[in-house]
Design goal:
Blueprint: H1 4-8, H2 84-95, H3 97-103, H4 109-119, E1 141-144, E2 147-150, H5 159-167, H6 170-179, H7 181-190, H8 198-210, E3 220-223, E4 228-230, H9 233-236, H10 240-248, H11 250-269
Helix pairs in contact: 2-3, 4-7, 5-11, 6-11, 8-11, 10-11
Length: about 325
């Protein structure tokens, strides 16, 4: 059976760079009333409350801000709407022309990358705005009576993608991102985020994806009205991006997460990750490997959504 899963499988074949760090501190205070008792047994006289300035709540904590340095490539950028040939050529130089020709949707590349990244923490994605072409094939499942599970054979479908991800040089990928960053920023503001910083959103989304649980063992599915769904409500309620990682299998997802950690290090520090692997161990706030025994007992609650992530999928401004 073809499912929306099959059309979404192509996400990771081109999501080249790709949750929320925000806190609100609430404080309050009250006015204290002071009473003075008169000596000599007279009734206590209650004085008027002492006027006090109202307590000033502390300002909400600012979300982390991650400014990007100026690209070392001084070559002028094309206009956003004319950038497809240029970025497609540069991506081909990084990933190989054959891979890019097979995977990349050649129109509005930067706008579609930005929309896709912004959509990953949401429950739905804008299918018509994906930066990659659809991938053929069907999701592989196993039926045992009335029970349907995601087959481990399904994970093998991602082998070419995982090899491509593992062989990608993070420094070169980051340099390409920095070169085109003004166009990524322009596209992000065109989505309806004037004055907000796309690199901050990218870091939020990477953090969100790194919180995807590492599930071992069969994942049970159920037949929805039209498409397969996760039988466990805790899994089905997760974001589109986290569900994509779940169905890739734990080993493939671990490879994606490793590259995401490396990319996050670059876009927040502009430095290469240490050789041997800053990306191998889970960082603070990330999901640890779930114990064996089935996903229903180990998935845990879904992380809180990022700001505006309950909104409908976004798309380029008309």
């Amino acid at each position: 059976m073809n499912t929306t899963w099959d059309s979404e499988d192509s996400f990771w074949k081109r999501t080249i760079v790709y949750s929320v760090i925000a806190a609100v501190v609430v404080v309050g205070g009250g006015a204290f009333y002071y009473f003075k008792f008169i000596k000599g047994g007279k009734p206590a006289e209650v004085q008027a409350p002492v006027a006090q300035a109202p307590a000033t709540p502390e300002a909400p904590a600012e979300p982390e801000h991650h400014p990007v340095p100026t690209s070392a490539d001084a070559k002028p950028l094309p206009a956003l709407n004319d950038s497809d040939p240029s970025i497609a050529q540069d991506l081909a130089g990084l990933f190989g022309k054959k891979s890019i020709d097979q995977m990349l949707a050649p129109e509005q590349v930067i706008r579609h990358i930005v929309v896709t990244i912004d959509n990953l923490p949401r429950t739905k994605v804008a299918e018509q705005m994906r930066p990659v072409k659809a991938t053929g094939g069907e999701t592989v499942t196993v039926a045992n009576g009335d029970t349907i599970t995601l087959s481990a054979d399904n994970y093998a479908r991602y082998a070419p993608l995982i090899k491509l991800v593992q062989n990608t040089n993070t420094q070169q990928l980051g340099a390409l991102y920095l070169r085109y960053y003004p166009l990524f920023q322009q596209s992000y503001e065109d989505l309806g985020y004037p004055g907000q910083y796309f690199n901050d959103r990218l870091v939020q989304v990477i953090d969100h994806l790194l919180q995807t649980p590492d599930l071992r063992g069969p994942i049970e599915l159920k037949q929805g009205k039209v498409f397969y769904e996760y039988a466990d409500p805790a899994l089905e309620s997760r974001s589109a991006g986290q569900k994509l990682l779940l169905r890739m299998g734990p080993d493939n997802a671990a490879a994606i997460k490793k590259k995401l950690r490396e990319l996050k290090m670059f876009v927040t520090t502009s430095q290469d990750p240490p050789k041997g692997g800053a990306g191998s161990a889970a960082g603070a706030g990330e999901s640890a490997t779930a114990p064996p025994g089935g996903p229903e007992s180990s998935a845990g609650p879904a992380p809180q959504p990022l700001p505006n992530d309950q909104a409908k999928p976004t798309g380029p401004a008309k």
